[in-house]
Amino acid sequence: MFIIKGNLCADRVRLGRALQKPPMTQEDLARRIQLMGASNITKLTISRIEQNQRHVCDAELRILAKALNVSMEWLVGD
Q1: Torsion of Cα atoms, 3 then 6 then 18 then 25, to 10°
Q2: DSSP secondary-structure letter at 17?
Q3: 4-18, 19-33, 42-56: which range is least confident on average?
Q4: 50-71: average pLDDT
Q5: What is the tally of helices (H) and strands (E) in the chain?
Q6: What is the pLDDT of residue 7?
Q7: What gap in Å lies between CA 76 and CA 38, rounded to an integer?
Q8: Which of 27, 39, 59, 70 could form a disulfide with 74 if both were Cys (CB 3.0 to 4.6 A apart)?
Q9: Model's pTM, two decimal places?
Q10: d(Cα 4, Cα 24) in Å, to the nearest integer?
């Protein structure tokens, strides 16, 4: 049986923010995502994702990738 604890992209979301020039805060990322039309993603949501306290659905993965200017594959560690 295959069990996933947390989510696959927690570390990559954190790393993706850190690699931005200048580095992006959780608030910056949430604001960028909200400007893209996903008003349900807040700083608290980003924090919970990064701490493996919240799962990420496919639509959220897509918008996270777009906001961080990375591929969805990169976000999940491929």
Answers
A1: 160
A2: H
A3: 4-18
A4: 95
A5: 5, 0
A6: 79
A7: 20
A8: 70
A9: 0.89
A10: 28
Summary mean pLDDT of the chain: 92
- Backbone φ and ψ of 8, nearest 5°: -80, -20
What are the angstrom distances between the C-alpha of 76 and each of 21, 22, 31, 35? 22, 23, 22, 23
What's the distance, CA 39 to chain centroid?
14
Better pLDDT: 77 or 19: 19
Using the predicted structure, report yes or no on whether residue 8 has a pLDDT greater than 90. Answer: no
Which domains are delineated in the chain? 10-75 (1.10.260)
Instruction: Tell which phi-psi region holds residue 38, choosing left (phi > 0), alpha (psi between -120 and 50) or beta.
Output: beta
